[in-house]
Design goal:
heterotrimer; A alpha+beta (441); B alpha/beta (238); C alpha+beta (408); B: six-stranded mixed sheet; 7 helices; C: 408 residues; 13 helices; elongated
Chain lengths: 441, 238, 408
């Protein structure tokens, strides 16, 4: 019977083309608006590294002064240089890496390219394994280079192509700032963990911008590369503090991000205890005047606390679904008009022996068929909206992309919406009194 | 075949009550061809609707083919209608977007028959009314008489025991009317009970029994005065 | 007009009436809130930065190597820039309003912890007020003798003992701008607090981050500090009609001075504002699109239901006409019916609009909806309903009276 109803539904699309057309358009528009915003919302709240997002953590230590100046209950979002190094050298933690954004001058050996400012991050070698960074050529630098701040660099695929063309860059040198660095590996362009949780603080917006290059953290420090992000100093340096970069390293200013990978999520409390213990020890040396207020965030927690999904995005999504609701109500009226026009046929079918539930099924299926057509149109419109959104900003360029899951959801939403809209008109259709319909022809 | 005892149908709207049928008694035997006549508003269409389980009645009894229909739910009534009754209407009531084959198919779909069996029955029914060659055509392409014949095929396809016809020739010219009537007589000849509502006394004469309804009550006329009418002062004498 | 019979008749077509009213209600609720948010966004985008926006541009170089004589470089740059015809004023600056990158510090009235006001900080060894085209509304600009020099290679602290406040900050601390002159404020608090004396107040000066909430965005101050850092960052004020040409000349001039730097920023104030408010613009556009869509959908719904009723009531209309109703009586009937339904929808919609607004206030930090938006929304929706119903009403009026005599 279902195929029979399906056939009838398809056939009746042609009946009353204006009304059907209106329903399809209304549904398409409502579906497109809500699905486009949902796509963006979903991309924004996606887990950037689902295979281990519960094992990657970032610590925040509260090194603010105890003079009542800071009312924010949240501890500072980056570490001081000495704390980052201390945590890196400490035993706990499977893999650890500091992360600091840098912008060294890149002087390509090609004569036709002028020097430019590269956009990259300085990390420890552990970073690549921690974040599951895929290499298409070569590999990360050695432990030795990591520890002594060797002159090495890892390039991103597109940057490597820009600088070296088709040739294999591994082993070649690149002039960075004041020294020559050897390329040890090339990272695939496909590596796109969105949002870029590992350098969330004060970087370019988390959905835009890629790192062109990676150098060892110790190298950046040794070459006094300026941190390209927030530098927050909660206390002024003491009068005998060394000026310049050395002063920065010794200060209580926070400018280094730090990530640690644990063997499993259940080890988090133990690591947190370790952090508290470390801070307690440092307190004996006169630092960390405030009582323990340290936090350990996993990836999702970090994204939540940084409010990655902005209020605006949420507002837009609510609004789009409100729009879908109005479209749905509109469809109810239009379907009612469509079905009312068919009261004659309903009367005949009832007279010929169709029980009410058969009429219900038939017209519900018909609503679903219209919904499917509306969904297909809505899908097309969604693609168009997403294309349009991608033109609006670079941020949307990565977020506003449809995947198979969203495609399926779009069609399902359209059909469900039309079924919901169809319930009342269908129920009305069943109440048609055959006698009345057949008499007055 | 069809028995109604003291049947009443009252329409209530806000403050007004209309008695369409009152104390209606009738017995129709299997194989009869009954013409139901009466002035407008007499209740003959109501009688047909109730007989066809299209409407509920207010009080009394109605037995169809031995089964008491009182208290039957929508599903049971629909099934009864589907299996035992065939309808023919004045304005044909064919579904315009379906071709003849699919029109005749409609009642069979609600039986849950296999495709093969449906096909057999449809082809047989259309052959019976002489329209096999136009199976794929649409109602709009047919004349009035042909459309009525399709409606008859549709009514017959399920093999009903009772055929209810409401002014079957009302929208046809005399020639077409005659051919439809001949068809009905043929069907009746094969054993199907027919109840036909009509204005036309000529048509009524062709039936083998006449039932006259005035003011919601029966007065049997002519041929076989099988049942008594309830005492009604101004009605015609049997 | 005969309202009661219309209402009674509507009871028989309850469903259609309820559907239209529901759509009207939902649309009103959403449109009122959406337009309110749009207005807030546009207000943020349009607010004045304090800078002379048609005259000022930013030019910034980053060093490609070590630069020893930073002061010499800065002085050469400033001289070169001043030499360009059409230039009114130049200053070496640390950051630009609305440019998203800059300095932030805290300010207190008494140096005591717990009451720090977050502020944006600007400094220059030249007249920042002049170069940005700011408006002084109290006190005076800095004098040559008050300028301090700070080299980040040797000086750990950045501080000065006089300061110019933004109007909003001055009012927050002292009640009004004039009272602020001569008073003391502190940068920071506790034992690190630095004392400064207010010598001037400017009307408006947005911070570099320029958040939506004006109170935060407009709390800023200016220091007379010549900062010798690694970048060469300048504000140039030019004649509006010549600005584009001056910008090109500036790039040529500074590029010619030294080869060991890379141009990082060359934007006029309009571009800077455009980039900062991209997000707000996109949000506003989206909301406007949704509003238009909603209005169209609701209008189509009204047309649909009204058309349905016209076709269902053909006989009745014919009878009325046969009995002497003029065409415009029929039109008036449908229009009155429509007004009744939209009014019912609007009544429900007002409650929904307020409810939706409260929800958004709690979840998304929206402000409360002013009454004027509700009034505007109501008027718009009424008008929409009327426009939508005119077509079907006119068709109803064209139903010939002869229909009355034909049987159904």
């Amino acid at each position: 019977m279902f195929t029979y109803y399906l056939g009838l539904g398809l056939r009746h699309l042609r009946r009353n083309p204006i009304l059907t057309g209106l329903i399809v358009v209304t549904l398409a528009v409502g579906v497109a608006a809500s699905m486009a915003t949902l796509t963006v919302l979903r991309a924004m709240s996606a887990d950037p590294i689902p295979q281990k997002s519960d094992r990657l953590f970032t610590p925040n230590l509260d090194n603010r002064p105890d003079d009542g100046t800071n009312q924010d209950p949240r501890p500072p979002e980056q570490l001081t240089y000495r704390d980052a190094i201390a945590l890196k050298n400490a035993k706990p933690g499977l893999r650890k890496s500091a992360v600091m954004r840098i912008s060294p001058v890149v002087a390509p050996s090609r004569s036709d390219m002028k020097p430019f400012f590269g956009d990259g991050i300085s990390v420890h070698a552990d970073f690549f394994k921690m974040m599951d960074v895929p290499f298409i050529k070569g590999s990360a630098w050695s432990e030795a280079d990591d520890a002594r701040g060797g002159h090495v660099v890892v390039l991103r695929e597109s940057m490597a192509e820009q600088l070296f063309g088709d040739a294999n860059p591994v082993g070649k040198t690149l002039h960075l700032d004041t020294y020559d660095a050897i390329v040890t590996g090339v990272v695939s362009d496909q590596w796109e963990p969105l949002p870029r949780f590992y350098r969330l603080v004060s970087g370019p917006p988390p959905f835009r911008g890629v790192e062109d290059l990676f150098i060892p953290f110790n190298t950046a420090i040794a070459n006094e590369m300026q941190p390209q992000g927030n530098v927050n100093c909660f206390t002024d340096p003491p009068p005998d503090a060394p000026p310049g970069y050395e002063g920065l390293k010794q200060s209580e200013c926070i400018w280094v991000q730090f990530w640690v990978e644990l063997a499993s999520a259940s080890e988090a409390p133990a690591y947190k205890d370790f952090l508290d213990g470390y801070v307690a020890e440092q307190r004996k040396l006169g630092r960390f005047p405030l009582p323990n207020n340290n936090k350990l965030y996993d990836v999702q927690g970090w994204l939540d606390v940084n409010k990655i999904v902005s209020k605006d995005t949420r507002l837009q999504t609510y609004l789009a679904f409100g729009f879908l609701l109005v479209c749905l109500v509109n469809c109810i009226g239009l379907l009612l008009a469509k079905f009312t026009a068919r009261s004659g046929e309903i009367g005949v079918r009832r007279a010929l022996g169709a029980p009410r539930r058969a009429i219900f099924k038939q017209y519900l299926v018909e609503s679903g068929v219209v919904g499917l057509v509306g969904g297909a149109a809505g899908l097309g419109l969604t693609f168009a909206s997403l294309w349009f959104l991608r033109k609006q900003s670079d941020e949307f360029a990565v977020l506003a992309k449809m995947d198979w899951m969203m495609l399926a959801i779009t069609l399902v939403v359209a059909v469900v919406a039309s079924l919901l809209a169809g319930i009342l008109p269908t129920w009305r259709a069943c109440q048609v009194q055959p006698a009345l319909q057949l008499k007055s022809q | 075949m069809l028995v109604m005892k003291k049947l009443s149908k009252v329409y209530r709207t806000e403050n007004i009550e209309t008695h369409a049928l009152r104390g209606f008694d009738i017995l129709v035997r299997e194989g009869e061809f009954v013409a139901v006549t009466g002035p407008s508003g007499s209740g003959k269409t109501t009688f047909l609707n109730i007989a066809g389980l299209l409407e509920e009645f207010t009080s009394g009894e109605y037995h169809l083919d031995g089964q008491d229909v009182r208290g039957l739910g929508d599903v049971a009534r629909s099934r009864l209608r589907n299996e035992k009754i065939g309808f023919i209407f004045q304005s044909f009531n064919l579904i315009p977007d379906l071709n003849l084959y699919h029109n005749v198919d409609v009642p069979l779909r609600y039986r849950g028959m296999s495709r093969g069996e449906r096909r057999e029955r449809i082809e047989a029914a259309l052959a019976q009314v002489g329209l096999s060659s136009r199976m794929k055509h649409y109602p709009a392409e047919l004349s009035g008489g042909q459309q009525q014949r399709v409606a008859i095929a549709r009514a017959l396809a399920g093999g009903p025991r009772l055929l209810l016809a409401d002014e079957p020739t009302g929208n046809l010219d005399s020639q077409m009317a005659r051919s439809v009537l001949e068809l009905l007589e043929e069907i009746n000849g094969r054993g199907t009970t027919i109840l036909m509502v009509t204005h036309d006394p000529e048509l009524a004469a062709r039936a083998n029994r006449n039932v006259h309804i005035i003011d919601g009550q029966v007065s049997d006329l002519v041929h076989e005065p099988v049942l008594r009418a309830t005492a009604a002062p101004a009605t015609a004498t049997p | 007009m005969e309202i009661q019979p219309i209402l009674l008749a509507l009871r028989r077509s309850k469903t259609g009436a309820i559907l239209v009213a529901a759509q009207v209600a939902l649309t009103l609720a959403i449109v009122c809130n959406a337009l309110f948010v749009v207005k807030a966004r546009i207000a943020t985008i349009d607010r004045p930065s304090g800078v002379a926006e048609d005259e000022v541009f930013q030019i910034q170089y980053a060093a490609a190597g070590e630069i020893e004589d930073r002061k010499g470089m800065q002085q050469a740059d400033l001289a070169a820039l001043r030499a360009i015809p059409g230039v009114k004023a130049v200053a070496a600056v640390n950051s630009f309003p609305v440019s998203t990158s800059g300095w932030g510090m805290g300010v207190t009235l008494d140096g005591k912890p717990g009451s720090e006001i977050p502020t944006g900080v600007y400094f220059s060894g030249e007249s920042f007020v002049n170069a940005m085209g700011l408006k002084l509304i109290a006190g005076r600009d800095f004098q040559e003798g008050e300028v301090r020099e700070v080299d980040d290679r040797t000086d750990a602290r950045v501080q000065a003992d006089v300061v110019i406040l933004s109007g909003r900050l001055a009012r927050k601390l002292f009640g009004n701008e004039q009272k602020a002159i001569g008073k003391t404020v502190y940068q920071g608090s506790g034992k690190d607090a630095q004392q400064m004396r207010v010598i001037g107040v400017v009307d408006t000066l947005l911070s570099s981050s320029a958040p939506a909430i004006d109170d935060y965005a407009n709390s800023t101050f200016i220091w007379p500090i010549r900062y010798l850092g690694a970048t060469a960052h300048y504000a140039v004020r030019a004649e509006p009609s010549q600005r584009a040409r001056v910008m090109k000349d500036a790039e040529k001039a500074l590029g010619a001075l030294r080869p060991d730097r890379v141009l990082v920023n060359l934007h006029d104030m309009d571009e800077i504002k455009y980039r900062r408010y991209r997000h707000e613009r996109a949000g506003a556009n989206m909301l406007i699109a949704v509003t238009i869509g909603l209005l169209l959908v609701t209008a189509s719904g009204i047309v649909g239901v009204a058309s349905l009723w016209v076709s269902q009531r053909r006989k009745q209309i014919g009878v009325r006409r046969a009995l002497g109703a003029k065409r415009r009586d029929i039109v008036r009937y449908f229009v009155t019916e429509n007004i009744l339904i939209t009014t019912a929808g609007i009544a429900a919609g007002l409650a929904l609009a307020v409810g939706l607004n409260l929800f958004l206030v709690s979840k998304l930090e929206l402000a409360k909806l002013p009454v004027v938006y509700l009034a505007g929304g109501m008027a718009a929706v009424w008008a929409l309903g009327l426009i939508a119903v005119i077509g079907p009403a006119w068709r109803a009026a064209s139903v010939p009276p002869a229909i009355a005599t034909r049987s159904a």
